[in-house]
Write a structure and sequence with these properties.
The complex is a heterodimer of chains A (about 325) and B (about 450).
Chain A: H1 2-60, E1 63-64, E2 74-75, H2 79-86, H3 88-120, H4 124-139, H5 142-152, H6 159-166, H7 180-208, H8 212-220, H9 225-236, H10 238-264, H11 275-284, H12 289-317
Antiparallel strand pairs in A: 1-2
Helix pairs in contact in A: 1-12, 2-12, 3-7, 3-10, 3-11, 4-7, 5-10, 7-10, 10-12, 11-12
Chain B: H1 2-37, E1 57-63, H2 69-90, E2 92-98, H3 103-109, E3 116-120, H4 124-130, H5 136-139, H6 142-149, H7 154-158, E4 161-162, E5 165-166, E6 169-174, E7 176-181, H8 182-187, H9 199-213, E8 216-219, H10 227-234, H11 252-266, H12 275-283, E9 287-293, H13 297-307, E10 311-315, E11 329-335, H14 340-353, H15 356-365, H16 383-388, H17 391-398, H18 413-429, H19 434-449
Parallel strand pairs in B: 1-2, 1-3, 8-9
Antiparallel strand pairs in B: 3-11, 4-5, 6-11, 7-9, 7-10
Helix pairs in contact in B: 2-14, 2-15, 9-11, 18-19
The chains are: A mainly alpha (about 325), B alpha/beta (about 450).
């Protein structure tokens, strides 16, 4: 009997539960539309401003076109890639892109970490003054910066050559931007000097977020300054370090491009060029958008792979003090 | 209610964005359409009646001279003078735009209005092929054109001739000369009145000056851009073959000339610097000799006066027994027109800029040669000025031996020229072997030209 009694009772209980679930589900569906609606403008803008041009770039890598309005792009298949890979400056540009990435790391990571740590313990006003000094190069226009360095490093009238000769270090004038031995180094130094302030500010901000209790505990355990720096400071700012490494690797070629354009134009004889300057040259000097797009496509792939590897490294190395 | 409002606003933003995208698309189609028409619809039968002083036609003039401090004032004067006289009378306003020899290209790519461009001769073939620059015969009235050209030498007219048509008219024009700092010469025991006649002699002079004064004997850039071709011609060699299908500069004559040139840098009596650095070095009184265009004359005179040193000038030195064969520097005026009205407006400016008034301004205020050479002897125009600065006579005398600068073929020409200039710099400033570098460059250029 009980069985008979229980069964209808169970059915009765299940039915309203199903109705409640359906109502909840309808409600859930209704709620889920809104975020997508809010996201839509941003997604559409992203598609329009980023992904559409990106696909356009990939498409143009298969065409021969001067980008002049009214002229038609001619399909040439993969010949732009062939032209790119056999171009005499391409190999140098690839190597230099790597050189600039490595050369910028001390200015975007190593030096800023030490500068921010060195200024962290100073009085508030002095600390702010120092950091303002570090940051000023960042807000200066690249062309103005280039002109200042052009004057300082001028082969015959520049202050640096004058000082080097007065001190007896060199006998003859050095043409810093026309001499293969110096041109790349100068581009790295100037781009690095410009980036130093921004990176120092990022690390200073990361240092401010470290709980002082860690240092107090370490001091009680007898840890010295260096041990505290390597075991606490570096560990705690590791997410910022990884972020700056990633930014430096992915963007150092872009940061140096303005200085290459103004100071060396990729010279002497193409030795200071990088892949971004080469792309600019293909598109706006040689008026060959196809080869430029081929280089852009190829390097987008390289940088995507690099970004993924760095992301993986970051998830392994970075420590988040949650 | 609040949620509903938010939802509506979001939906409205989305719709407006989509509408914006639609507009952008339409805009780009319109831009393409306009540019497609440019250069095709123009007629060569227009007359100045098409212009209306009450509704003046604007002509954009891209000029690289506007970007050089030593030339800016003169070029601005030329534009202002036209706008205030002929322009105001006929209904034309010329808008000067500072160019860097690439801006006109990117502006054309961006669909901007580019009407007249001060262009170097070497770029002309690629510009007419890919950027829609037109032949004068196609857009200007034949009778007026013939009349206007009558005072300009045929050699000068031929400089911008491609496939039998005149794609530009020589505008600013000069040859390289040897500028001399007389004070440094005397300090080194040399006579500025007896300048070096050959490159070998110039090397001896430069080494003496370095030794005696500590200053550089010569300021001359390996990347000077145009004098290099003159050195190759002077050596008895050539740049390209007659039909411009092959580079022919890599030979014994060129190698020998380059070895001498390289010795200036290796012996320490000159610095391998950029062209502007070399000019600055000479103007600052830190070098005794400088090979440069007379377009820098006004700036160099001002520098010598400011630095209180005496300026001398001489013809470009020869090589061995060969007399110097200078190439022309300077530029031509290339034009694009999208309507008969615009063509008429451009023509008025071209006539003024390359007429008696125009050449008087660009010679007396910038230092270029008057392509209407009779102006140099006309007291109403340039006689007094040329008498005051006899350096210009050297330039005029060199015109007899002048060769036009190479017009590189349109296809791959820019890239080929870049290979050439890179090779010149590498041969002269690195430890690399001159013969090997130039031979390799010739092979690379030929591979490009035959593509």
């Amino acid at each position: 009997m009980n069985i008979y009694l229980t069964q209808p009772a169970t059915r009765e209980m299940v039915k309203p539960r199903r109705t409640a679930r359906a109502a909840f589900s309808r409600k859930k569906k209704k709620i889920n539309v809104k975020p997508y609606l809010f996201l839509t403008p941003a997604v559409l803008m992203l598609i329009w401003w980023v992904y559409k041009p990106m696909l356009g770039t990939l498409r143009y890598s298969l065409y021969d076109w001067s980008m002049v309005p009214g002229t038609e792009a001619v399909y040439v298949g993969l010949s732009n890639f062939k032209k790119l890979l056999t171009n005499k400056d391409f190999g140098t540009a690839v190597i230099n892109t790597g050189v600039y990435i490595l050369g910028m790391l001390p200015f975007s990571v190593i030096l800023p970490v030490f500068l921010s740590v060195a200024t962290q313990g100073l009085q508030d006003k002095v600390k702010k003054l120092y950091r303002a000094f570090f940051f000023v190069p960042m807000i200066m226009a690249p062309v103005a910066v280039s002109t200042i360095f052009q004057w300082l490093l001028h082969p015959s009238n520049g202050l640096i050559n004058h000082l080097l000769q007065t001190a007896g270090i060199t006998a003859n004038n050095i043409s810093f931007f026309s001499d293969e031995r110096f041109a790349r180094l100068m581009i790295i130094l100037i781009s690095g000097w410009k980036m130093l302030g921004f990176a120092t500010l990022m690390f200073s901000s990361a240092l401010s977020g470290i709980d002082r209790q860690y240092y107090e505990a370490a001091a009680l355990d007898g840890a010295g300054k260096f041990r505290s720096f390597f075991h606490i400071t570096l560990t705690m700012i590791s997410p910022t370090v990884m972020m700056m490494i990633m930014m430096s690797v992915l963007f150092s070629s872009q940061w140096s491009m303005a200085y290459i354009d103004v100071l060396t134009q990729g010279g002497p004889y193409g030795t200071s060029t990088n892949i971004y300057y080469l792309m600019y040259k293909y598109a706006f000097k040689d008026m060959n958008v196809g080869v430029c797009a081929a280089a852009a496509g190829l390097f987008m792939l390289v940088f995507v792979i690099l970004a993924m590897l760095l992301q993986k490294l970051s998830s392994k190395v970075a420590f988040y003090d949650n | 209610m609040k949620k509903l409002l938010c939802t509506l606003m979001t939906a409205a933003l989305t719709v407006s964005l989509l509408a914006g995208c639609g507009n952008a698309d339409t805009g780009s189609q319109t831009a393409s359409g306009t540019a497609a028409d440019s250069g095709i619809g123009a007629q060569n039968t227009q007359d100045s009646d098409l212009l209306d002083p009450a509704n003046p036609t604007t002509v954009t003039f891209y000029s690289y001279s506007l970007g050089y401090p030593s030339m800016k004032d003169g070029m601005e004067h030329l534009i202002r003078s036209f706008n205030e006289t002929v322009g105001a009378e006929k209904g034309v306003i010329v808008e000067g735009i500072t160019d860097d020899m690439t801006k006109f290209r990117t502006d054309i790519q961006a669909g901007n209005q580019v009407d007249v461009v001060q262009m170097t001769f070497g770029q002309l073939d690629s510009a007419r092929t890919s950027l829609g620059f037109q032949a004068y015969e196609d857009i200007f009235p034949a009778d007026e054109l013939a009349e206007h050209l009558s005072g300009i030498s045929e050699n000068a007219q031929a400089l911008a001739e491609i496939d039998g048509k005149m794609y530009a008219l020589a505008f600013t024009f000069s040859t390289p000369i040897l500028y001399i700092n007389g004070d440094l010469f005397r300090e080194a025991g040399l006579d500025p009145e007896n300048p070096p006649a050959t490159w070998a002699e110039m090397l001896e002079y430069a080494q003496t000056i370095k030794e005696k004064t500590g200053k550089n004997g010569l300021a001359f850039s390996p990347t000077n851009g145009w004098v290099t071709e003159g050195i190759i011609y002077t050596a008895g060699s050539d740049m390209l073959n007659a039909d411009k299908t092959e580079a022919v500069f890599a030979n014994e004559q060129t190698f020998a000339a380059f070895e001498t040139w390289k010795e200036f840098y290796t012996s320490g009596c000159a610095v391998a610097e950029t062209d502007s650095e070399a000019a600055q070095e000479f103007m600052a009184g830190n070098a005794a000799m400088h090979i440069q265009s007379t377009s820098m004359l006004s700036g160099i005179i001002a520098a010598s006066e400011a630095g209180d040193w005496e300026l001398y000038g001489a013809a470009m030195p020869g090589i061995g027994d060969n007399e110097a064969v200078p190439v022309n520097s300077g530029s031509c005026l290339a034009v694009r027109s999208d309507s008969p009205e615009k063509a008429a407006a451009i023509w008025e400016f071209i006539k003024y800029a390359t007429g008696d008034e125009g050449y008087t301004i660009i010679t007396s205020e910038i230092g270029y040669l008057p392509l209407r050479t009779y102006l140099a002897d006309d007291p109403a125009y340039l006689k007094d000025f040329v008498d005051q600065y006899p350096l210009l006579r050297i330039n005029l005398a060199q015109l007899e031996r002048i060769r036009p600068v190479t017009i590189w073929p349109a296809k791959n020409g820019t890239e080929a020229f870049s290979v050439f200039t890179d090779a010149v710099q590498k041969a002269l400033t690195s430890d690399s072997d001159v013969t090997a570098v130039l031979t390799q460059a010739q092979e690379d250029i030929n591979a490009l030209l035959q593509q």
